[in-house]
Amino acid sequence: MDILKAVHLKKYYGSGESLVKAVDDVSFGIEKGSFTAIVGTSGSGKTTLLNLIGGLDFADAGEVIIDGHSIMEMSKEELTVFRRRHIGFVFQNYNLISVQNVYKNIVLPIRLDGRKPDRDYIAQICGQLGIEGKMDRYPNQLSGGQQQRVSIARAIAAKPAVLLADEPTGNLDTRTSTEVMGLLKMTSREFNQTIIMITHDDAIAQLADRVIHIEDGKLVREQEVQA
Ligand code: ADP
Ligand code: MG
Question: What is the pTM (predicted TM-score) of this model?
Answer without folding.
Answer: 0.94
